[in-house]
C-alpha cells in the first residue's frame, strides 16, 4: 500500500500538467492534476514520515491513516473525492494483512459508493463513473472465481479494474456536453485511471502501463491547455474542516446546496467526540465566499478554511507551499 501511493504520487506528478490541460469540468480552472497530485502526496507522505505512521501490518490501518492525511489536505473536487475513496476503501480491509480478489472487490465497491454519496449532486462522466466501473469489473472477476484468494485471482481482478476504468474514461467524453464539445475525456477520470494502474503495478510487481493514456482525446503532450480558451468561471472554492452533529451536518449540506454547487461533505475519522460531533471535510463552489463562510461558522468552528478563485489557474509550485487564494 505504501508502494502504491508512492507510485501514484510520482505518476500524478509526471502527468499533472497534462491533466490540468484537459480540466474543463465542473469548472475550467485547469488544476485537477495539481489537486490530485498534492492530495495523493499527502497520503503517501503520511505513511513514510512522521511519528504517527502506522506500525501494524494491517492493510486497512495503513490505508485509513493515508486516507485521513489525504482528507485533511484534500484539494479541489478531485482531491476530496479521492480522499473519500481512500478512507472508504480502508474499511473492508481492516484486520487483513494482505489483499485478495474478494477484499479488492469489497474495497472498491465501498469506496465508489461513498464517493458518489459524498456529492450532493453527483454527475456521471466524471471520476465517479471510473470508480464505479473499476469496482464492477473487479467484482465480476471475483464472482467468477468463487472467492479464490490466490495472487493469480487478485491479478486478474486488478487487470479487470484497470480495463474497466479505461473504458469508463473513454466513455466520459460522451456523457458530459462540455467534454463532447471540447473533444476531451474527463481529467479526474484519467487521474483515477492512473491511480488504479499504480495499484495494479505495486501489488503485482509489474510495470505501469504507459500505453493506457495513448489515444485518449485531448491527452496529447503537444495539445494547448484546452481550459485556457474557455470562459473564466466566476466564483470561489471554499473548503474547511469542521466538527458537527449529524443534524447540523445535514443542515450545512442543505444550506450550501441552496447557494452553491459542487458541494462535497465527507466524514473525517471514524468516531464522534464526547459531544456527539463528527469531523467533516467540506467543499463548495460559490459566487462569493462571505455567505458560505457565514453559514459554516453559524453551525460550528471551522478550521483549515481555504478560499480559492475558480477563475485563476493555480501554479503547482505555489500550491505545494500553500493554497492559492486566501487562508483563514
What this model shows, in words?
Helices cover 54% and strands 11% of the residues. With 328 residues, it is of the alpha+beta class. The longest helix has 25 residues, at 151-175. The protein contains 12 helices and 5 strands. It has helices at 2-21, 32-46, 59-72, 76-90, 101-118, 127-144, 151-175, 177-182, 187-204, 246-259, 289-299, 316-319; strands spanning 236-244, 261-268, 278-286, 303-309, 326-327. It has a 5-stranded antiparallel β-sheet with strand order 2-3-1-4-5, with helices on both faces. α1 runs antiparallel to α9 (187-204), α6 (127-144) packs antiparallel against α7 and α7 packs antiparallel against α9. It is globular.
The helix/strand class is alpha+beta
Stretches with pLDDT under 50, minimum 5 residues: 312-328
| Count of DSSP H/I helices | 12
Terminal CA distance reads 34 Å
Largest sheet: 5 strands, antiparallel
Order of strands in the sheet with most strands? 2-3-1-4-5
Helix content: 40-55%
Number of DSSP strand runs: 5
Record keyword descriptors for this entry.
five-stranded antiparallel sheet; disordered C terminus; globular; single chain; 328 residues; alpha+beta
Could you give a short description of this structure?
The protein has 328 residues and is an alpha+beta fold. It is built from twelve helices and five strands. The protein is globular and about 55 Å long.
Amino acid at each position: 500500500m505504501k508502494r502504491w501511493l508512492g507510485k501514484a504520487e510520482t505518476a500524478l506528478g509526471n502527468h499533472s500538467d497534462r491533466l490540468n490541460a484537459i480540466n474543463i469540468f465542473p469548472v475550467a480552472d485547469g488544476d485537477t492534476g495539481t489537486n490530485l497530485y498534492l492530495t495523493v502526496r499527502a497520503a503517501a507522505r503520511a505513511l513514510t514520515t512522521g511519528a504517527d505512521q502506522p506500525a501494524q501490518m494491517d492493510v486497512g490501518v495503513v490505508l485509513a491513516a493515508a486516507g485521513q492525511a489525504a482528507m485533511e489536505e484534500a484539494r479541489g473536487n478531485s482531491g476530496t473525492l479521492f480522499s473519500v475513496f481512500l478512507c472508504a476503501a480502508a474499511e473492508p480491509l481492516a484486520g487483513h494483512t494482505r489483499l485478495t480478489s474478494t477484499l479488492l472487490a469489497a474495497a472498491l465497491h465501498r469506496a465508489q459508493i461513498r464517493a458518489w454519496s459524498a456529492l450532493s449532486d453527483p454527475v456521471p462522466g466524471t471520476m465517479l463513473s471510473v470508480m464505479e466501473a473499476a469496482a464492477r469489473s473487479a467484482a465480476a472477476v471475483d464472482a467468477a472465481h468463487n472467492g479464490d484468494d490466490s495472487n493469480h485471482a487478485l491479478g486478474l481482478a486488478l487487470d479487470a479494474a484497470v480495463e474497466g476504468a479505461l473504458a469508463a474514461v473513454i466513455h466520459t467524453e460522451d456523457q458530459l456536453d462540455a467534454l463532447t464539445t471540447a473533444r476531451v475525456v474527463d481529467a479526474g477520470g484519467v487521474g483515477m485511471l492512473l491511480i488504479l494502474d499504480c495499484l495494479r503495478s505495486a501489488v503485482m510487481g509489474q510495470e505501469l502501463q504507459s500505453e493506457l493514456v495513448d489515444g485518449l482525446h485531448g491527452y496529447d503532450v503537444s495539445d494547448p491547455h484546452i481550459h485556457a480558451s474557455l470562459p473564466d468561471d466566476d466564483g470561489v472554492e471554499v473548503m474547511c474542516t469542521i466538527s458537527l452533529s449529524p443534524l447540523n451536518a445535514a443542515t450545512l449540506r442543505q444550506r450550501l446546496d441552496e447557494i452553491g454547487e459542487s458541494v462535497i461533505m465527507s466524514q473525517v475519522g471514524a468516531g464522534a467526540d464526547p459531544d456527539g460531533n463528527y469531523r467533516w471535510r467540506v467543499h463548495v463552489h460559490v459566487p462569493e465566499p462571505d455567505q458560505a463562510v457565514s453559514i459554516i461558522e453559524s453551525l460550528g468552528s471551522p478550521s483549515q478554511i481555504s478560499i480559492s478563485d475558480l477563475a485563476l489557474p493555480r501554479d503547482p509550485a505555489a500550491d505545494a507551499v500553500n493554497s492559492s487564494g486566501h487562508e483563514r
